[in-house]
Protein: Type II secretion system protein I
Organism: Pseudomonas indica
Amino acid sequence: MKPVFGRRPRSGGFTLLEVLVALAIFATVAAVVLSAAGRSLTNAMRLEEKTLAGWIADNRITELQLANPSPGEGRENKELEYAGRRWETLSEIEATSDPGMRRVTVWVAPRPERSSGTPLRDRAVVSLTGFIGVR
C-alpha cells in the first residue's frame, strides 16, 4: 500500500481517548467491586458477632438452669473472654406466675475499649430469654 498524501496508515493500536475511556470504565467497576466487598466484610463481621453473642447467652441460661441450688431473683453482670474477645453479660431473673419457674433474660454485648456510659441493654448484640425450674 502506498501512503496517501498527508495521511498516515493506521497502526492498529489504541488511541489515547480509547485508553482513557477504558481506564474510566475499569475504575468505576473496581470502585463498585471494592464497595460491595467492604459491605460483605462488614456483614460477615456483624453476623459473627451476633452468632458468638447468641452462644454466650445460651451458655449463660444453661449455666443458670444447671445451678444447684436454683438462683434467686435479681440481676448479675459478668465479664468473660470467648473466642478471643472480651464480652459482658447481664442476666436478669424474674418470678413468673408459676412458683416453680423463673424467667431469665440474658443480654450480651462486646466489652468496649473505654467505658461509654451506655447501659449494657442498649449496647447488647443479642438478648435471649429462657426459663429455669426452681428446686
Q: What stands out?
A: The first helix runs from residue 16 to 66. The longest strand covers residues 85-95. Helices lie at 16-66, 120-123. The beta strands are 74-82, 85-95, 101-110, 126-133.
